[in-house]
Amino acid sequence: MSIKASYIKPRTLDEAVATLAAGEARILSGGTDFYPALGDRVVREAVVDVSGLGELRGVSNETDYIRIGGLTTWSEIMRTPLPRCFDALKSAAREVGSVQIQNRGTMAGNLCNASPAADGVPPLLALDAEVELASQRGVRRIPLADFIVGNRKTQRKPDEILTAVLVPRGLEDAASTFVKLGARRYLVISISMVAVVLLLQDKRQVLEARVAVGSCSAVAQRLRVLEAELVGASVREGLGAVVRREHLAPLSPIDDVRATAEYRMDASLRLVQRALNSCAENG
After folding, report:
1. Which end of the chain is less enclosed by CB atoms within 10 A, N or C?
2. If one looks up domain 175-281 in CATH, what number appears?
3. Residue range 56-168, CATH number
4. How far apart are CA 157 and CA 133, in angstroms?
């Protein structure tokens, strides 16, 4: 069965997944990516507006995870009391467009849009986040690192809704930071951005490190070789000094109107060093 071009606003998640199962349709949540992407085109397929599904909004503490509903907005992320390991995500939330965009843009929309420059992705990668996808076939979970597979490409199937982001518990006391470089201070698409999560022992030595870089490859990347080398490093000696250019090997920046690939690599090196030093100082 197919759905003709129409606007549908389900009242429950069950209604929403049933509608998606009936035929091809586009999901609308905050609309901050949906409408600009249309340009002058007319929507010819069904639109399923999930913005009214209150069950997909908000943050809750579960036994093994901190659960962020897919329709939680960036403004809500900023307002919600969260463990300090979420400081990087809160900083990234302040960089998502204007205040109006932050009030409307959703977590699920940011991830499913899968822009290489999506501000929310590096902090969530550094938190080892997973995404939860629901359909009439059931619920499945995928690590965020596997969910986004390319520029504007994800593993979400057409009949699935991203219902939540799940952050494993265990690093609540870790320090975290987010830094971003753009051509201007506000309302900017990044040239490079870095998120760091650091768990320290007695504020002197690294127990665990996570470093993620965005805008420098089709998909944001964790620098796992660097993370491994940071474990055991002394904060007193300066963590930024540990970082070498070869640690950025997972990145594959491009030349575009914002910066050259070479500039992006140089900038990313400096941002990683700066983020690690800042995070260690606050650890």
Report:
1. N
2. 3.30.390.50
3. 3.30.465.10
4. 9
Residue that has been written with the tokens 């699920």 in this structure: 108
Residue 198 dihedral angles phi and psi, to the nearest 5°: -130, 130
> Which residue do the tokens 């494993």 mark?
168
pLDDT one-digit tens code per residue, 173-197: 999 999 999 866 666 788 999 999 9
Domain boundaries, the chain: 7-49, 56-168, 175-281
The mean pLDDT of 2-19, rounded to a whole number, is: 87
Six-digit token string for 103: 């009030």
Rounded-to-integer distance, Cα 69 and Cα 55, Å: 8
